[in-house]
Target: Histidinol phosphatase
Amino acid sequence: MKLRADLHTHSISSGHAYSTIAEMALAARKRGLKILALTDHAPDMPGGPHEYYFFNLRALPEYLHGVRILKGAEVNIISANGKLDLPVEMLASLDVVVASSHAVTTPETLGKKKNTEMYLKVVANPHIDILGHIENPLFELDYPTVIKAAKAHNKLVEINNASFTIARHGSFNNCLEIMRILKAENMPVVINSDAHVASRVGEISRALEVALEQGIKKENILNFNAQKTAEWFQVKL
Ligand SMILES: [Zn+2]
Ligand SMILES: [Zn+2]
Model:
């Protein structure tokens, strides 16, 4: 069993990523992926594309280099009430929506209690699919509360390989706690690359190694199975 779908990746359109979608799709094919979600940063990220970019993703074919392309976005959580930086109609038109906090777009000084309340609002948003890199220590969270709420709303909590490869102090221990809760709650796990360059598409080796050490079973990793992933996101393969 191996990774079949990468559900969090960035193309050159994000403004601080470096490959075209054709290069990314080819890299995905070489890695043996069946599904590639393009989740470029939403407009509030400096250098991010205009919202029309997401509207016009319908111009893309379903397959590039034989890889099923899912049209997505990584939206920014931009206020304490869980507001996101794409309009509802746009979110509804996308296959995959990852919601994340970033230092440049998300209030940084709310503290653990308010951050947790903010995430409870995000999790309840019917248009989001995945909570992105919640291990980021910049945004302290009550993980059991947020992850159990994600479970109740059928949302995925990703394990982000980039959190292991860029030195973000505290991410590692947060990842371990997140993995423990996902396992205890018997939730599906998704491990994503968060690639910002084609050569890293489908590269999840460090996160996978840690997940397996923590007792997460490969059969519980949703994106190891292309068919199950397609069913989860209600897309045809
Ligand atoms: Zn992000
Ligand atoms: Zn990202």
Observations:
- The CA atoms of residues 5 and 125 lie 24 Å apart.
- The chain is about 30% helix and 15% strand.
- Residues 74, 100, 102, 132-133 surround zinc ion (ligand 1) (CB under 6 Å).
